[in-house]
Design brief:
Number of strands: 2
Largest sheet: 2 strands, antiparallel
Shape: globular
Number of domains: 1
Order of helices and strands: EEHHHHHHHHHHHHHH
Number of helices: 14
Helix content: 55-70%
Length: 287
Amino acid sequence: MNIDLLHSEVWGQKENLPLLIIRPSKGWCVNLREIWYYRELLYFFVWRDIKVRYKQTLIGAGWAILQPLLTMIIFTIFFGKIAKLPSEGIPYPIFSYSGLLLWTYFSSAVLNSSNSLIGNANLITKVYFPRIIVVFSSAVEGMIDYFIAISILFLMMMFYKISLNLYVIITPFLLFLAFLSATGIGLWLSALNVKYRDVRYAIPFFVQLLLFTTPVIYPSNIISEKFRWLFYLNPISGIIDAHRACILGYKPIDLSSLGISILVSIFLFITGALYFGRTERLFADII
């Protein structure tokens, strides 16, 4: 958006009151300077979403732990005990939980960011601010849950006598990559969701399908090497593999799979931001 600052005229006389004229941006662009100017608004959106999520709940932030923990128990029973899926030589509860940590953040970030514009329709039609901030805030808020839930993983590692790996310092970078890929997908889907409301019904189904193409319940090495590059086109696959390896330290990080995930995540984010910037000026009219 382009904003011009002029002087207003009241009753034919010039006043020193500022008059803001907001014009829609043209072309495929995102105004980074404007996003920085509204950076405090991002903080308030994140804080608002966190308070609304846990308002009038009995255990509050405890849900951040229960969701991956209960899912891990179910996966351990059905996939670890009954289906006997391999877990690369480490206890299946830790194997699945270490993958679920990042997957839970990624999936919630995709779902929340994709529906963020529709959920803030009243605000978007009345007040001007960079709409991309709404998508960013929806993807950022889940990081709080991630940091709460990872404490359970450390306790599980103590129980199974697995020492913490030095490469655990890389986990913030991997979390940032998950944010990048989730936000890239969210930018595409949120912009499409404004125009085509069918998208909001397809998103949960899309996320469920994506789970089974992600190495959460099974290791990536069971995929044939011939098709493994296709498997890693799922941006979160290489990131989850690296996340599990750097925390548990049972194998070296696969740099080739992580590199593919980084490239795909950057591609999704850049193209999503460009498409979002192109369609942003229409949101208030059609939402």
